[in-house]
Amino acid sequence: MTSYALFLGCTIPARQPHYELSARKALPKLGIELVDLADMTCCAPPPLQSIDLETSLSIAAYNICLAEEADLNIVTLCTGCFESLAMANATLKKNERLKARVNRILSSAGKEFKGSKEVKHYLQVLIEDVGLDRLRKAIVKNLSNLKVASFSGCHALRPSELLKFDDPERPHIFDDLVEALGAKSIWYRNKLKCCGGLLRGYADDVALAIAREKIVNTTKADADCIATLCPFCFLTLDLGQILMKSAFHEEYNMPVLHYAELLSLALGIDPKELAPDFHKIKVDKVLNKIV
Amino acid sequence: MALEKEVKKSQLPFSKEIMTQLGGETVTFCYQCGTCASSCPVAKITEKFNPREVIKQSLLGEKEETLSGDAIWLCCSCYNCQERCPQKVEIADVIYALRNMSIRRGNIPNIYAEFAAGLMSEGRIVPISKFLEKKRPEFGLPPLKSTGIDSLRKILSTTGFDAIWQKGEEES
């Protein structure tokens, strides 16, 4: 078993228990132990960075301090959390002046950022700690009937200089992991483009127009489902289709699943154990194709 | 000559001011090539936002228009522009710096005020419903660990975040 401090974030426990369940069921089956640490707080994502970058950097560093004290690297499920924490970690590790500035702030909470730990997205853990070969061998269900439109979202890939997740213009990790499950990972127009999710709440019409493009393009490419890594992308594309019905009078019914759900299904976990009702767009079509 | 003086007077302080902000350090590297605009998913949908224009306005010293306008809030933080900028302008970060400056003047959009309120009261920007929290054992999920709200509040008061937020509240 390789152990990681699980950084759960807020959107997943607040809205997407199906994501949390699938990750908590699948990862231990592959030798990854998820440890829940007390006192983690917000990751300080873009909305907080928009309010105050210094505060955001300090909050992210505070969370990393907890993992340092527990002597564990961090794994995130949410791509937003990954970006906030990994960016802060990389920035503070290379910028001594900023690190000193943040540590002066953290001393008020009795913490000191040392820079001794890594922050990883769970896809990196799957690639680095499990590996594609071991993953392929662990698969018990046949997903070969599925054409999957993988969508990394923005904050796993960019800014690549700090996140070092994958090639930002020609990423392949996500597609490799989809294909390791036996499914076909397909290309579609503007695959790497944003889902628009971060504009929700400020400019809903713009956010929905960007999301619509993603649904149109994956539909044209004849995908059976979209696979996501991020709860915001999921929300924007899944709930988004309900909003598109009323805004544009268009109905797509494109199922959206988190990669962890596809992974759980491939590992033979009963779909009923994965709270599938939390999908606004029904996933039966996808489940029926898995044999 | 008078015009040149006028431009100098307004231009230098604002771009320099941005450069002193976290995230704003690279703003003056821009040579207005437009790679950012052609990479921007928002600019394709609406004319209200164009990253190159935001940087241009900043460099020209149009402080009021930049900090009071709608444009800086329409960036979707996808980092596509920043990834591709040949001059290594950290465009998304510059926009954060501009938002930080705008908020310190008391201009905080409602949705951001809600996020800040969630952070200050619960340590999470998206509040967790009691209903879902109670249902966790039914799903087979472990109980949620406590958030480090006390430590968080100490950090927020040290950086002055709580004061920034209160100022926004008063002015809105």
Write a structural description.
The complex is a heterodimer of chains A (291) and B (172). Chain A has 291 residues and is an alpha/beta fold. Chain A has two domains: 2-122, Glutathione S-transferase Yfyf (Class Pi), Chain A, domain 2; 132-288, Rossmann fold. Chain A has 14 helices and eight strands. In chain A, helix 12 links the parallel strand 7 (225-228) and strand 8. In chain A, 58% of the residues are buried. The model of chain A has no long low-confidence stretch (mean pLDDT 97). Chain B has two domains: 2-104, Fumarate Reductase Iron-sulfur Protein, Chain B, domain 2 (Orthogonal Bundle), CATH 1.10.1060.10; 110-171, no CATH class. Chain B is built from ten helices and no strands. In chain B, helix 7 (110-122) packs across helix 10. Chain B is globular, with a radius of gyration of 20 Å. The N and C termini of chain B lie far apart (41 Å). The mean pLDDT of chain B is 91.
Unreliable stretches of chain A? none
Beta-strand content estimate of chain B: under 5%
Strand order of the largest sheet of chain A: 2-1-3-4
Please tell me what the overall shape of chain B is: globular
Order of helices and strands of chain A: EHHEHHEHHEHHEHHEHEHEHH
Fraction in helix of chain A: 40-55%
Biggest β-sheet of chain B, characterized? none
Largest sheet of chain A: 4 strands, parallel
* Level-1 CATH class name of the largest domain in chain A: Alpha Beta
Q: Which fold name fills CATH's third level, the topology of the largest domain in chain A? A: Rossmann fold
Query: Mind telling me which CATH architecture of the largest domain in chain A this is?
Result: 3-Layer(aba) Sandwich
Give the oligomer, counting copies of the same chain as homo and different chains as hetero. heterodimer
Classification by helices and strands of chain A: alpha/beta
- The helix count of chain A comes to 14
User: How many distinct folded domains of chain B?
Assistant: 2
Which structural class matches the secondary elements of chain B? mainly alpha
The CATH architecture of the largest domain in chain B would be Orthogonal Bundle
Highest-level CATH class of the largest domain in chain B = Mainly Alpha
